[in-house]
Amino acid sequence: MNKKTPFYRFVLILSVVALFPVCNIHAQHSAKTKQLSSKQQRWFDDKKWLEGAAVFPDTGIDEITFVSHYEKHPERWKRVFEFIKENNLATLPLGKQSLGDDITVNVQEYMTREPGNEQLEGHKKYIDLQYIVNGCELQGYAKLVTVIDVINPYDEKRDVAHYKVPVIEYHVVKPNQFTIFFPDDIHMTNIQYGEKAKVRKVVFKIAVD
Question: Minimal CA–CA distance to 141: which of 24, 52, 47, 56?
Answer without folding.
Answer: 24
